[in-house]
Amino acid sequence: MNIKKRRCALSPASNDCVNSNNSAKRRDHEVYYKVKKENALHYNMSMVGGVFGGFAVCMLGEIFGNAQTLNLIAIAGSIFEGDFRTLCLRLLGALLYTAGLALSVVVPRFGKARAEILSLIISAVCMLIISFMPVGTAPIITLYPIFFAMSYQWTQFDRIEGYVSASIFSTNNYRQFVVSSLRYLIYREADMKVKARVFGFTLLWFHLGVALVCLCGAFLDRYSLLVGILPLISAAVIMTLKVHDEEPTTPPCRQALIQTNESRP
Question: Does the first or last residue of the chain, that is N or C, have fewer Cβ atoms within 10 Å of its Cβ?
Answer without folding.
Answer: C
